[in-house]
Amino acid sequence: MATNNPQIPVRGAMRNVDGNEIWDMYLNEVKEDDKQIADAWKEGSDGILTFIGLFSTIVAAFIIEFYKRLSPDSGNQTVALLGQISQQLANFPNGTYSITANQPPPSSSSMIWAIAVWLISLVSSLASALIAILLQEWARRYVEVQIRPGDPNHRARVRSFLFLGTKIYKMRLIAQMAISLLHLSVFLFFAGLVIVFHTINKNVAIAVEVAVGVLGVAYIALSILPCFDVRCPYRTPMSYFLWYPTHAILSFAVVCLRWLVVLLHGCLAEPSWDEPLTLTQRILFRWLYSHEEAVKTDWRYIMDGLGKVIINSAINAQASKACSQYTKR
């Protein structure tokens, strides 16, 4: 009995294929995509782990060194106590005898804050390393589980099932979280440096503050630039988080500006149905229309997110470029 196999185009020609061949073609198409996804997770994790290995060593060294200043030195206390006893014995024949215990100087609150900030930085970096290790394990399992079934149909279903899970549970967001924690730990370390050097030397503290301030301003600028121009290749993990409040603030500002324009229109342009629009009315109407479009654009950006807006902007830019070239012809 003949079976009606579907016909699909293969290299420009239509031919019959069976069910397994269709699934094999599907698996071959998505194999490279899955490899790129898994490699991206692994390579990003390798870079994070390498940096954290060096960074954690530096932070731990600072914590150990400055923590010693918070703990009283038993050797110094012994020497001070022996000196006090000898002084008291020397004054004993004169009839004067007093016992005054030398209390260790109180720990500086700035030093305590610096060590606390460094400890938070160390914990954040270790948490980032843990997430990176988990990402490597998840990437390995993502690839291994797909190849266990022998039937191409089952392998394709398993692949689709796992890929849908990565979308639902935001695997890319977890990867961004690891990098964000690493960046946070670096800036916390810098903050601890500024605090601790204020207790040691003011001039050195000012120099460190200037260096950290310049780095912080540059980081903030790189984080905010993609929020205003999605073509900007410079972005940080904070760009994805700053995207939403930035456009929410812009939308609120445009609404306030639109209210001012409406108020200005009511004061300067009297409505008249018999006479044509004046130049002032046309300008104000044009402003109102542009403000309404800006509000719609900002809300669409908030709903779509940075990643989707980049793709849509690229597609629309390509389409508009093609239309302009067609009209020139």
TrEMBL record:
Pfam families referenced in this protein's UniProt entry, alphabetically: DUF6535 (PF20153)
Domain DUF6535 per the UniProt entry, residue ranges: 23-196
Keywords in alphabetical order: Membrane, Transmembrane, Transmembrane helix
TM annotation in the entry: 48-67, 111-135, 177-200, 206-228, 240-261
Domain of life: Eukaryota
InterPro entries xref list: DUF6535 (IPR045338)
Record-given protein name: DUF6535 domain-containing protein
Taxonomy of the source species: Eukaryota, Fungi, Dikarya, Basidiomycota, Agaricomycotina
